[in-house]
Amino acid sequence: METLPLQKCTVHTLSAIIHRTHTFIHSIAILFMLYYRLIINLNIIQISFLPYWFLIFVSEFILSFLWLLNSAHLWRPITRSVLPENLPPENELPAIDVFICTADPIKEPALGVVNTVLSVMAIDYPPEKVTVYLSDDGGSVFTLCAIREAWRFGKVWVPFCKEFSVKRICPEAFFQTVDEHEISGGKEYLLEREKIQKEYEEFKERVKKAQENVGTKDTMVHFGPNIEIIGQRGSGAKYNDKAKIPTLVYVSREKNPSHPHHFKAGALNVLLRVSGIISNSPYILMLDCDMHSNDPSSARQAMCFHLDPKISPSLAFVQFPQRFHNISKNDIYASALRVCFVVNWPGMDGLIGPMLSGTCFYMKRKVLYGAPIHKDMELIELKKCFGSSNEFLNTLITSTNHKQNDNGIKEFPDNKIQEAKILASCTYERDSQWGEQARFMYHSVVEDYFTGFILHCKGWRSVFYNPTRPAFLGSATTNLNDTLVQGTRWNSGLLEVLFSRFCPLIYGLKSRMPLLECMCYAYLAAQPLYCFPAWFLAIIPQICLLNGIPIYPKVSSPWFFVYSFLFLSTLSKYLWDVIHTGGTMRTWWNEWRVWMIKSITAYFYGTLDAILKLFGFRKASFLLTNKVVDDERLKRYQMGIYDFQASKMLIVPLVTLVILNMISFIWGIGKVIFEGRFSDVFGQVFLSFFILMVNYPIIEGMILRKDKGSIPLFVTFLSILLSFPLLFLGSILLM
């Protein structure tokens, strides 16, 4: 009997044709540009200009190479839809384990963490088939107290959500806005809502009191593993069957400075082991601690792919987009990650699937175990891969059989809790292959990118699903400092992969990954290299302009058309992509600015950090993104005003280069007016003008603004002092 369809796939043929046509024409123009620079321009330049010529050529080559890699994303864009009404009955749905990670109760406030926990406990899925695990990498007593209080409140919150089919299942979000039942709900609903809101306020007070009693700082450097099953399924009886709520498990792995903990990947591998002997669900939902569930049906949507017999055998994970509740209309820092989740990931879905994005994905558990595991495998071989726990090894082959009581509540014997603590110890992974070729991968702080890459290399596929209603909502960075610090960490990790034996264009092709998919992975890994053309093109043409040396063809030359075409082609194609995917002209302009700012700062420092780690001058580190909201800075973000309250290491390079381009532009205008050299220097004058136009907020922050978010006078003065020696030294090299 043929099963009913669970999902549909639509290929955007017109978009693919437009993109491929543009790629072909643009590629020809790039070849002409490289021919001009290598053959024609090289024969007419002075010897003293040769070093600068080489850097300009390197810049143009890197930009061309990265553009070519990036073009693979839109080769075959697709979108998907689901038919959850065709899913099997609830008693046949597979179980799900939910992994939520937190590490610092100061940077990641506990109230936000427990709201994420409560939201996934209330998803529209059989509660006896959901187990929620919270990994607390800080070992905070306060976080444990907060999660206990969350369980207590969850016994009334979850039944309320299911009784009234609440869509906004995160308590904080639910009570902050008017929900759909406010208008259509009856008297019973309104009374219950008022009662639940009162309980929620009491819950927040208890959390606040716990914080005052135990504090948030943990002074211990070394602490042992702690596993606590917060509650049992079936607690509460007010709403009968709907009163059943998922099991909640608190996991704090052992930390010891003398043992590597591998950051988030290490925490996830501990959850993988601990959950293996407690629930061992075949599917895993991974969420960041600030990424709450916004649609109770997301699990059923994911199962439409995982249970589809046509794609399920090779499907590793279903990736939902990261969406954010605090994005402003202007989104001046491009914090929505629109390019990834609206443009690139749907394009990769048309190949063999999108990259793993760290959160908001439903993964098949067995894909993380590497090679297929069967009962005839030697015990020594299994222990070499997965460690010495016989209990855990048994779960790799057969599902754990828990004794059921009359109420359907699973019982967890004390010996299993002790075994779980062994699995969470810092020495368990010794002499095993955790983090190597399977599980959540080590070697890089971007464990999501690396793990997804290895899975795709092994032949697994993935799916990207972007529903109309956001399945999950998180908090994005809303100030420049956090945006650039986060970007620095990501880019350092990406370059670690690029510089390793796992370089996508080498390892991926050797693993027989499709070329276009390799190009997509390679583009993201090589993206930090944008820092080189960004720095070179913000300095060298300007220095040459001040010394009267043209580096671009004359306006009257036919080669000028090639450069003009490439410039306009790049801008217009990107504008088309933005408009076509629901963006605006302002979105397009903001993203150009953020790309320039990140290229000078986050990409540069990420590249520097990766190089230092490559040569052993620096150890790997993981800087948490601050989730604490600063009301004043948030207000500036909502108003579309840049906040330059950031590290001087981030701001000084930006201001210095803007000042350099201001000097260059004014000098170039003078040459055009007084020397009549319009045709010679137009390209360089226009480049400076374009840089200044895109980065106008920096000029505004230096000159026009006097608020707290403006650029400090000291930074401006320091940047001026740095720009003149830069111009002087650059001019000397041309002599």
Automatic annotation (TrEMBL):
Coiled coil: 186-213
Binding site for UDP-alpha-D-glucose: K107, E108, D137
Keyword Nucleotide-binding: no
GO cellular component: endomembrane system; membrane
Binding, Mn(2+): K264, D288
Entry annotation: catalytic residues: D137, D448
Cellular localisation: Endomembrane system
UniProt-listed SUPFAM superfamilies: Nucleotide-diphospho-sugar transferases
Transmembrane segments: 23-40, 52-69, 521-546, 558-576, 596-617, 649-669, 681-699, 711-734
GO molecular-function term, one example from the UniProt record: cellulose synthase (UDP-forming) activity
Keyword Methyltransferase: no
GO BP terms in the entry: cell wall organization; cellulose biosynthetic process
Keywords: Cell wall biogenesis/degradation, Coiled coil, Glycosyltransferase, Membrane, Transferase, Transmembrane, Transmembrane helix
Membrane topology value: Multi-pass membrane protein
Signal peptide interval: none
PANTHER family reported in the protein's UniProt record: X-BOX TRANSCRIPTION FACTOR-RELATED
Protein name (database record): Cellulose synthase-like protein G2
